[in-house]
Amino acid sequence: MTETARFIGMLRASAAHNADPNKPTDHGYSPYAATNASHKSLKATAAARKPIFIPLLESLIHATKHRLPYPNEPLTYESKVALDRILDTLNNTASITSPAMAGRFPVLSTSDLPRASAEEQSATASPARGTAMLNSIFKSVRVPEFRFKWMFWAEKGQQATPKDKTASSDDFASRPKPLGDQIISVKEFYQHFNNIPVENLKLRDSIHLFHLGVKPVWEDPRNVRGGAWYFKISKDLAAQFWHEICLLAVGDILQGAVETKRASFNDDICGISYSVRWNAVQIAVWNRDAENEAGRDKLLEVILAQLSEELRPKKEDNYWYKAHKEHKGFIEQQ
Q: In the chain, N or C terminus with fewer CB closer than 10 Å?
């Protein structure tokens, strides 16, 4: 491509871009005003740097305005130098932006493009945010399910030991009440967890998270041979401790600790409890087999290792294991 043809191409592009010189852009910037400023700058440059090949420039501009044939004669050295300066000026002018656009990305101008179809417009719409975005994700993405199904339970004002020594196990089994629906994935877990303000529980109130089908009472058939690790937690750390122990439970971390291959009786995690006491919170991790000493030791080891450092009990007398049948309120099965 010759220098003349290159310059002609620049003029054509400039003419097409400024087809409507009186129409301002979206930001109040007029390409025509910029072009006038460029022409004034060119005239000043021409006056200060004579001689330049003015007749060739004038003929190119005249041909562009009136759509006449362009000259084909080769450029002289002076013309080539002058046109290079003009091209540099045009390139610099093209980068002018309004003050409102300072610091913004440059605008890409297009013309003669077909309109987007309805399908294309919907595909490029702004994404949903907040609750709408979460609902969209849960509808389109299948949330992995937990290995076990779970359920929250609420228990109000449980006494340390039964006052009525003739009370039956059915009386105690009726105290915990199911709280919400079954939990099969992290979606349902947080829908329940985020709506249970454990910080507002009263003295001796309890919240339990247990395997579906297992009641949070010692005498339940799945619990009767088991026991629990009890942790005495200060009230300022109790909510965070509860959150982490819940995640260890539903995430099968605790279950993996007690699973041992035994010929007669396989151990399981039954559930966890949050109980408000006078000056602290008692959090319990229930397992099915109190005689599984290896599983019990491994369970404690895993809990202490997985908890955040600030939550780990500092003294050994802040945690202990106890079989359910050792409690004074335990009712022997007939």
A: C
CA atoms within 13 A on the CB side of 113: 7
Lookup: tokens for 45? 């440059």
Neighbouring residues of 6: CB distance < 8 A, sequence distance ≥ 6: 87
| Residue 270 · residue 222 · CB < 8 Å | yes
Which tens digits make up the pLDDT trace of 216-254? 999 999 999 999 999 999 999 999 999 999 999 999 999
Angle among Cα 39, 44, 45 to the nearest 5 degrees reads 95
* H helix count then E strand count, the chain: 11, 7
Q: Which of the residue ranges 2-16, 43-57, 192-206, 220-234 would you say has the lowest mean pLDDT?
A: 43-57
Q: How far apart are CA 230 and CA 245, in angstroms?
A: 12
User: 235-250 vs 293-306: helix axis angle to the nearest 10?
Assistant: 120
- Please tell me the total count of domains within the chain: 2
Q: Is residue 90 part of a domain?
A: yes
Is 126 contained in some domain? no
Q: Which of 158, 184, 106 is nearest to 284 (CA)?
A: 158
Domain end, chosen from 101, 130, 162, is at 101
Using alpha carbons, list the distances in angstroms from residue 42 to 26, 76, 82, 289: 27, 19, 10, 93
Residues 25, 30: Cα–Cα separation, whole Å: 6
Structural domain of 22: 3-101
Q: Are the beta carbons of 261 and 317 closer than 8 angstroms?
A: no
Q: Which CATH number goes with the domain that contains 297?
A: 3.30.760.10
The distance in angstroms from the start CA to the end CA of the chain is 104
Of 80, 81, 61, nearest to 70 by C-alpha is 61
Query: Taking 80 as the threshold, does the pLDDT of residue 69 lie above it?
Result: no
Same domain, 94 and 156: no
Task: Provide the CB-side half-sphere exposure for 140 (13 A, CA).
Answer: 6
Q: Which amino acid is residue 94, in one-letter code?
A: A
The encoded tokens of residue 11 equal: 């003029």
Entry pTM = 0.56
